[in-house]
Amino acid sequence: MEMFLDGTFTPARDGRVMPVTDPTTGESFDTVPLAGPADADIAIRSAARAFETWKRTPVTERARIQKTCAAALRAAAPEVGALLSRELGRPLPGCLHEISRSAELLDIYAEEGLRLQATLSLGSATGEKTIVTRDPVGVVVAITPFNYPINLLMFKLGAALVAGCTVVAKPSEDTPLSTLKIAQIFHAAGLPAGVFNVVTGDRALGEALVAHPTPRKIAFTGSVAAGKAIAAAAAGTVKRLTLELGGQSPAIVCADADLDKAATAIARHGFANSGQFCYRVNRVYVERPVYADFLARLTAKVAAMTVAPAGGAGELGPLVNAKIFANSDQQIADARAKGGRILTGGARLTGPGFDGGYYLPPTLIADATPDMAVMREETFGPVIGLAAVDSPAEALAQANDSRFGLAAFVFTRDLARGLMLCEGLEAGSVWLNDIQRSSHFVPFGGMKESGLGREKGRYGVESYLEYKTMYLSYEVPE
C-alpha cells in the first residue's frame, strides 16, 4: 500500500519501501513507502494548502463531514478490522471494538466542535467592543504508536479536524496499513484532499516532520524518550505540543476491598491487548493481611486466560515485535534474579502456532521489590508485579515514587479512604473500585514524565485552537 497524500495514493520519491509483518507468523505480507524528508515536505505542503480553505469552512460543515466519516468507518469495520488484526496480531473482536470506539470519538468531537463559542466582554467603553475568539492552530503532525493505531489517531485527528486544522499523520512502522485505509475511506466520504495526509517511514521521517517549519503543532503518543526528543526539536520553532507518553500505573488493594472484584478488574485491564497499552495496571500494592488471598484469586483468573496461536482463537495475541517482547522478557529475568516469584506465565510460548511470533503468556510476579524494573519502568507487555504493604499510606508513597503519572487504581470499601487515596495519587486519571475504559467525554493525559496536555472531549478540541483577542472601535450615533 502507498502513502495517502493530497487525496491519492503516492509512492516515496525515491521508491524505497519497508515491509509490514504479521506478528502471529513473523512473515511479511505487504510493503509501504519508506518516506524521507522530501516526502514529508510534500505532505506538509499539501496540508498547508488545504488549511487555507478548511479553516474557513463553517464548523457546522466540518462537523457534518466528520460525522459522515464516522459512519463510513463503522460501515468499513469488517475490512479495516481484518487489516488491523493482520498487522497487529490482536484477535479480531478486539480490533472491531477499537474501530467502534474510534467512530464514537469522532462523533463526540464533532459535537464538541459545535459547542465552541467566542465571548464578548461587557467591560468595554462606549464605542468599543472586545471579542475573544479562537482560531485553529494550523497544520498538525500526528505521530501514533502501534498498540491502538486507529483509536489513538482519532484522539488527535477528530479534535484537529473539527477545530479547523489539517493533519499529516505518521503511523507506527508496525501498523501503517489501517491508517492508510482510513485516509482513503475518509476521502471517499467527503473529507477534502489534503486535509488528512498519511506518510509512512521510520524515525528519520518523524524527525523531518517535527523539524519542518510549517506545522504549528505536534500531537504524539509514544515513549517518554521519544516525547522528550520531540519536545526538544519542537522548541526550535515553538510548536504547540500534546504528548501522551509512557505509564507505569499502580493499583492499591486495601485490606477491606472486594478482592474478587479487584482481581477481575486488574486481570482484565492489566492484560488487555497483551498488556500493550500505556495506562494498564503495571504494579499492584496489596495490604499484607489479604496479600496471599488476593494472589490466589488473581492467579486463578490470569491462568485461565487463553492465548490465540496463529490461525487460532483466544483472548490474547502475540507481542508486536522483538523489541517489545525483549522488554518484558528482560523485566521477568530481572525480577527472577532479585527474588521475585513467578506465579503464572514467565516464559515465551513455543510449538505449532507460536514459533513464528513473540508470544508471552500473561505473567504475574509476586514479592516484587522497588528495585525491580517491573516496579519502576514501563513494561508494555503482559507482566504485572505485586508487592505486600503494611498500610494504605505505604502503598500511596510507593505508588507515587515514580517518574510516571498517567493512571492509577484503588480498591477499598471505605469511601473516605478511597477518596483520600485518589486525591493523593499523582496521576492524570484515577479509578476507584473498578476499571472501565477511559471515557471519551473527559480529559485524558498524564502528569510528570507521562506527558503534556490532554486529549478527548472538549479538552481535546480546545488544544487545537489559539485564543485571539479582537479590539473593535466604532462611532456611536448621537
UniProtKB/TrEMBL annotation:
Keywords: Oxidoreductase
SUPFAM superfamilies, per the entry: ALDH-like (SSF53720)
Record keyword Oxidoreductase present: yes
Domain of life of the native organism: Bacteria
GO biological process annotation, one example: gamma-aminobutyric acid catabolic process
Single annotated GO MF: succinate-semialdehyde dehydrogenase (NAD+) activity
UniProt key word Transmembrane: no
Pfam families given in the database record: Aldedh
Aldehyde dehydrogenase domain segment(s): 12-469
Recorded family membership: Belongs to the aldehyde dehydrogenase family.
Protein name: Aldehyde dehydrogenase family protein
Native source species: Neotabrizicola shimadae
